[in-house]
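I can't quite decide. Please look over this sequence plus structure tokens:

:::
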Amino acid sequence: MGVVSGIVLYVVFWWVVFFTMLPIGVKTPGDLGEAAGEGHADSAPVRPYMWRKVLAASLIAAVLWGGYYWLQGSGLITLRPDFHRTD
């Protein structure tokens, strides 16, 4: 795997994990029995914990990328067609 493809794969893993984590732990003012502030949507989270989610997505994406890198290096999976195989 080249440097550019490795970076692109990490970014794809990061965004998928990040968007998956966004709704986790979100509480709206209605969930807490409060009224939303003036100018805020009723569905806006009270505390979204974005930095925790960014850090967690970075760590999880790094583990996923490392796993893929190991699998590809071991030859168990590959994205390149092998037309010269003679098994």
User: Anything to note?
Assistant: The chain has two helices and no strands.
